[in-house]
Amino acid sequence: MVSILAFLKQTKNSIIGNPTAKVAFHREGAVSTYFANFIVEYVNVSPDALVNIEDSAIEIRTEAAHVITSLASGSKETLHSLLAAGAHEAILWAISELQPNDPPSLRTALARTLRALATSYAEIVGPSLWGLGEENNEIQSEARSALDSIFETQSLDIYLPLISDPSPVTRVAICQLISNAVRQPEHRKMVAEWVPMADRAKESKGKRGWEKPGVGHTHSSVRVGGWITQTLSALLRSKEPKLQEAALSALAALAKDTPSIGSVLAKPSTDREGATSSQPSALFIALTLCKSRQVNLQLAACLCATRIIRSNNNNRSTDITPAWTLLHVLNNIISDVHEHNLLRAKACFVLFALSSDQKEICRAAVKSGSLAKLSDLIKSITITEDFQDWGDSEPESTSKLREAALTAVSALALFDNEIRHEITSVFCLIPHITVSLSHPQAGVRYAACQCVRAISRAVAVLRTSIVDSGVGLSLYKILENRDEDRRVSAVALAGICNLVNNFSPLRSTLINKGLIPRLAELTSSPYHSLKLNALWAVKNLVHKCTPEDENTIMEGIGWERLGTFLYDPNMEIREQALNILCNIASSASDIEMIFGHLGYERTVDALNSALGCPDEGVLCQGINCLANIANGSAEQRAYILSCASILNGLRNCLTHSKLEVRQAAVSCVRSLVQGVPQQHKEVRDARIDITLRHIVGSVVPTSPSISGHVMGVEEDAEVRKIARLILDLLERPE
User: What is the pLDDT of residue 317?
Assistant: First the structure.
């Protein structure tokens, strides 16, 4: 009879590093019907349960943990079995029951198992850390629930203290759990604000009964950035590269899109009381470690520094000096033909994270040679001459490298026409992008679509290279494919939005190929990104087109469908529907068409609803649409003016806290007043004239408006100028 321990060791040795064996276990029914529950049960086996069995309980628990760790990286079917068996709950319980005299090997094994499970759950839930990743909708709900439970305060209390474990291997495992599994904002917040129970107990001392402390954090810990960021920052000063790499990656995960964390990590370290210490900032250490001789450590340092930099200056052009250091390191890795493909791919993805939506950093990257090196890389692994098809012989690492390089190129091209010109005319990458649109890997197709979307924003490129190369039609083939990955279809559709602008030579070609029925189909898609981008394409199609084309487009899309979208509960959908209506209403005949198909009551009610919407995007588009429709016939303007709630809503928008809303509102009022020069009673009854006098400074400010903005002299000179023009019109004798 084979002992339990021997069986576990034999199983571990047969499946570690062997995906085929893991699949075989599930195919034979072992994992789904018995195996997972069996293994999970023995993670918490007690010595009392091993009567007449010579095996050590500690060894059995350790080996069971090793087996679960290996199975966690297997197929989604195997992972589903582990989810059903409650593997993560069993591991958390096992860690909570660890005793001081338990060997370090058990503690390390359990930490690694929890890391493996959390990482696999996070990969199912998404987003992927490196590239597009796979979609696993079948078990996404179960994985999300399990991941949420791992990041609950009660769970954090169990395993986060292990980040201070004497064993560096255990500390690495917990750091890697954070870096691999923290991908959602809510999980990031939970980890960042957590402090040990002992610290929470100290914080609660001296408080009166009704002054309850927070469950997972204290005021002082949040003020100085959190216990976890201080602990991880201290690990950066370790002499062990693996621990430094893991700590850097964990800090990168916590700092992503989180200014409160990024600002702390960019400043010199503080002690637990908030006092500044003599230790350098985490950002300074990360930039220093970028120069390490170990590529994995370099990449972790670059990613950490990138996340800190981006969280501090997101969407703003500030000092980009630290970015130059990162660009130099990343360029060296990208251009090193002797380096492993996956490491070069990570360098490309970090470059994407650094430069995405940052115009100045994009320009710096091109100046530093990033685009040239990416071009050389793409050309070295992508054959375009006599290309037939991809076949199935390309290594996965090469496909991932191509995806990463194209992704980085798409980020560099997004804002600057000169960069787009270099991509198309200097480095001549369009043929390589075109063939990549038909690659068997969805991630490569996705990245290639992103490139087409970025370069097609340049009018000159759109009218020449895009048309001549045929890449636009290749993009449309992706949209026609009903079996395409929906994420690829969505980004292809985003590119199509550029190709159907009124100045695009491909506009009529795509319409003739059946674009309108396909867009109508996609506006009913259950996937938000497809529906939204389809409406965006319709918005561009109806912009500055002839009344005949407008009618054809809207008959294909459906007026009734558009009317429904005007009340959609999703604000992005509703905003695009209003944008479509706004673009249609460009002439008197177009406005007549709108009222004819939607009706007077429905049209005005939709506009009234938009003016009362708290979403600023919907609000602005509603105002712009009202301004255009106000240019209709006298009967239509009179109907609008008879709606007191629209005029009241417009008056409130004149003092909105956002300048964009105030600009749209004052322009709309001008359209209404100019359109009815002898009928201003309704405008005065709505007290719009009084609000305008406040704006230009004719009335002493009193109190805030309903929107929360103080009703006083307008700061923007253009708004004041238009307000004075409107008052001049209102004060003319009727």
Answer: 46
Domain CATH number, residue 618: 1.25.10.10
Residue 408 lies in a domain: no
The residue with tokens 């990286």 is 73
Is pTM beyond 0.85? Reply is: yes
- CA atoms of 6 and 60, how far apart (whole Å): 9
**Domain boundary residue, one of 616, 642, 668:** 642
Tell me, yes or no, whether 656 and 732 share the same domain.
Answer: yes
- Contact by Cβ (8 Å): 469, 433: no
User: Domain check: are 637 and 699 in the same one?
Assistant: no
pLDDT reported for residue 223: 44
How far apart are the C-alpha atoms of 345 and 502, rounded to whole Å?
37
Residues 638 and 651 in one domain: no
Residues 601 and 657 in one domain: no
Regarding whether 105 and 94 lie in a shared domain, the answer is yes
**Rounded-to-integer distance, Cα 498 and Cα 540, Å:** 8
Q: Specify the number of domains making up the chain.
A: 3
Nearest residue to 303 (alpha-carbon basis) of 448, 168, 112, 129: 129
- Three-class SS state of 390: coil
Low-confidence ranges of the chain (pLDDT < 50): 1, 31, 33, 215, 217-224, 315, 317, 705-710
Tokens of 181: 């599994």
Amino acid at 499: L
Give the pLDDT of residue 707: 45
Domain membership of residue 718 (yes or no) is: yes
Q: What is the DSSP string of 418-439?
A: HHHHIIIIIS--HHHHHHHTT-
Average pLDDT, whole number, for the chain?
A: 88
Crossing angle of the two packed helices 717-731 and 659-675, in degrees rounded to 10: 20
**Whether the bond into 127 is cis, omega within 30 of 0:** yes
Terminal Cα distance for the chain, rounded: 106
45 plus 134 within the same structural domain = yes
pLDDT in tens, 227-261: 999 999 999 999 999 999 999 999 999 999 999 99
Q: State whether 680 and 691 are in the same domain.
A: yes
Within 13 A of 29's CA, how many CA atoms are on the CB side? 1
**684 and 609, same domain (yes or no):** no
Give yes or no for a contact between 377 and 404, defined as CB atoms under 8 angstroms apart.
Answer: no
Q: Which domain holds residue 582?
A: 554-642
State how far the alpha carbon of 318 is from the alpha carbons of 282, 307, 323, 365, 379, in Å.
Answer: 19, 15, 11, 15, 34
The answer to whether residue 471 is domain-embedded is no
Instruction: Retrieve residue 307's tokens.
Output: 């996340």
Residue 208, in any domain of the structure: no
DSSP secondary structure letter of residue 193: H
- pLDDT tens column, 341-387: 999 999 999 999 999 999 999 999 999 999 999 999 999 999 887 77
CA 518 → CA 177, 474, 485, distances in Å? 43, 16, 16
User: Angle at the Cα of 139 (from 137 to 141), degrees rounded to 5?
Assistant: 85
